[in-house]
Amino acid sequence: MSRYSNPLRKTCSQGSYTGWRFARADENVPDAGPDELNHAEYLRDIYFKVNPDYEGRFTVPVLWDKKTKTIVNNESSEIIRMLYTEFDSLLDGKTKGVTYYPEESRKEIDEANAWIYVCL
Question: 12: which strand partners?
């Protein structure tokens, strides 16, 4: 998604779940805006762009690859872990390798995430 695309609200249309809607350019929604990459109205449009037969949930966040025009991942904990080190080559020595998913805490973090996803 572009840096201005921040789908903030879930909406229902004629009784069917449409998923997260992008703010329109004429709306004043803080920290949100239209999808400037795909011009989608709803996040589900992005899922269907990748797979017209998609039958799952339309979840956020979505990590979108602009070059291949596809969803790379839609699982927040996995996206965070990918971003921990993926861009280390661009960082200075002070911040390179910093992680909030240390090896010695991973079991507890994974257990907490499993509980959160099921119970919340």
Answer: 17
3: amino acid identity, one letter: R
End-to-end CA distance of the chain: 25
Contacts of 2 (CB under 8 A, 6+ apart): 33, 35, 36, 37
Give the three-state DSSP class for 112.
helix
The predicted pLDDT at position 120 comes to: 65
Q: At 4, phi and psi to the nearest 5?
A: -95, -10
Average pLDDT value for residue range 74-79? 88
In order of their start, the domains of the chain are: 1-74 (3.40.30.10), 76-120 (no CATH)
Q: Indicate left, alpha or beta for 69 from its phi (over 0: left) and psi (-120 to 50: alpha).
A: left
